[in-house]
Specification:
- It is rod-shaped and about 190 Å long.
- A hairpin with a 5-residue loop joins β6 and β7.
- Helices cover 56% and strands 19% of the residues.
- The strands form four sheets. It has a three-stranded antiparallel sheet with strand order 3-2-5. A three-stranded antiparallel sheet has the order 6-7-8.
- α4 packs across α6 and α8 packs across α10.
- With 382 residues, the protein is α+β, with helices and mostly antiparallel strands.
């Protein structure tokens, strides 16, 4: 038999000893709550007197008003916030952009306005690395970093869902465009600075188009090299280019040294040729004038002039010869004149301007000796 069936012998009690209770009284529960609130704010309880319902209602209304005022004060206090000097605050009112707040102590209604603080002076950074194809169809491995700040907090928060991710995508796109328009040598060696500047300009143009609120401060090419699979071959090419530049510089240095010398030698030869030309012309003109004068004198005294010309010719000949062999007419003897020894003896005795006189005297003696030898030969022949 069940415990709650009639005649079960449990006298209306359940096995756990509980009594038969009805549902709770809501009025009694509200009255207890009002008593507790009244005691909390200095009021008096109902004291169990259910007949004074009007007074209880008045005490409950004032309590609710006090609670409401307290809640409003607490709500207002939660609306105050501080913005630092390096920050800007973007205020959204009911989810719609309301204003950009400057540094200082500010207040906005809580639960109505949403405030997002953005640091606009902090320098942030992003990195990118990848293999790219150059204009001359070579693959290069380029790594770069970008430094940027937030210059428009409203656009940074509202216009782009993920500004950092958009920056990375735009950075890779700008870098690939610039590298794809450049030669491999320019990317790896001397053109890094130009590529960094071009990438920064293109990246800033992309970000301005997106209205991301980001200002690019600096783009640095950290590394640019050929892929590791062909790095050894590329190093050989680099060394060959360095050797070429070194040899080129040495050749230019040699040319810079030898060309002025060659030009100086050429100028010297030109001047010597010019001087020789002037000398030959002057000598020719002098000889022509001398011949004209001799012709005039020859017409006046042919024998004397002829004899003088003969003596001058002998003088010129003997002055350039150290030995003379004379063949005598009508005889088999050969006369030898050691002019070098005779000149040495005469030079010991006389020096300076008297040398021309010695030559002339020597010439006269030679002519006289020749005449004597000729006369003696003729006598022997008779």
């Amino acid at each position: 038999m069940a415990w709650n069936e009639p005649g079960g012998g449990n006298n209306g009690k359940d096995p756990w000893g509980g009594k038969d209770q009805g549902p709770p009284d809501l009025d009694e529960a509200l009255k207890k709550l009002q008593d507790r609130l009244s005691k909390l704010f200095g009021g008096k309880g109902s004291g169990g007197n259910s007949g004074k319902s009007g007074g209880d209602f008045q005490v409950g209304s004032s309590t609710l008003i006090a609670v409401a005022v307290l809640a409003v004060i607490i709500w207002g206090l939660f609306g105050f916030y501080q913005i630092d000097q390096q920050e800007r605050a973007v205020v959204l009112r009911l989810g719609v952009y309301h204003a950009t707040v400057m540094p200082g102590l500010r207040w906005n209604p809580p639960l109505v306005d949403e405030v997002q603080k953005i640091n606009v002076t902090k320098v942030r950074s992003a990195h990118s690395r990848g293999q790219m194809l150059t204009e001359d169809e070579n693959i290069v491995d380029v790594a770069l970093s970008v430094q940027y700040t937030v210059n428009d907090p409203a656009n940074f928060v509202l216009k782009v869902k993920s500004p950092e991710l958009s920056l990375e995508h735009a950075l890779e796109s700008a870098l690939r465009h610039v590298v794809g328009s450049s030669k491999m040598d320019q990317v790896i060696t001397e053109g890094r600075e130009e590529i960094a500047v071009a990438t920064q300009m293109r990246l800033q143009a992309y970000l301005d188009t997106y209205q991301s609120g980001i200002l690019v401060a600096k783009v640095n090419i950290e590394d640019a090299q050929a892929p590791s699979q062909v790095q050894d071959a590329f190093d050989d090419v680099t060394r060959a280019k360095e050797d070429r530049e070194r040899l080129k510089n040495e050749a230019e240095a040699y040319a810079n040294g030898i060309i002025p010398e060659a030009r100086g030698a050429a100028q010297r030869q030109l001047e010597e040729a010019q001087a020789y030309q002037e000398q030959v012309i002057a000598e020719a003109e002098g000889e022509a004038q001398r011949f004209t004068q001799l012709l005039t004198e020859y017409k006046k005294a042919p024998e004397v002039t002829r004899e003088r010309l003969y003596i001058d010719a002998l003088q010129d000949f003997y002055s350039n010869s150290s030995k003379v062999m004379v063949d005598v007419d009508g005889g088999s003897n050969m006369m030898y004149l050691p002019l070098d020894k005779l000149m040495d003896k005469s030079s010991v005795k006389r020096t300076g301007s008297s040398q021309d006189v010695d030559i002339r005297e020597l010439t006269d003696k030679v002519v006289e000796q020749l005449r004597r030898d000729s006369q003696s030969t003729r006598r022997e022949g008779r």
